[in-house]
Amino acid sequence: QSYKYQQKKNLEKSYTREDWQGGYKSLRQEFDYWIDDVEGEIPTELQGTLFRNGPGLLDIKGQSIHHPFDGDGMISRISFVNGRAHYRNSFVKTEGYLAEKNAGKILHRGVFGTQKPGGWLANIFDFKLKNIANTNVIYWGEKLLALWEAAEPHRLDPKTLDTLGKEYFHGVLSAGEAFGAHPRFDPSCEQDNGAPCLVNFSIKPGLSTTITIFELNVAGEVVRKHAHHVPGFCFIHDFVITPNHCIFFQNPVSFNPIPFALGLRGAGECIQVQPNQPTRIIVIPRFPQSGQKEIKTLEVGSGFIFHHVNAFVVGEEILVDSLCYDSLPEVEPESDFRQVDFEAIAPGQLWRFYLNLKDGTVQKKLIESRCCEFPAIHPRNVGRSYRYLYMSAAHAATGNAPLQALLKIDLESGEKQIWSVAPRGFTGEPIFVPRPGSEKEDDGWVLALVYDAAHHRSDVVILDASDFTKGAIARLHLQHHVPYGLHGNFTPQ
Ligand code: 3ON
Ligand code: FE
Question: How far apart are CA 213 and CA 146, in angstroms?
Answer without folding.
Answer: 18
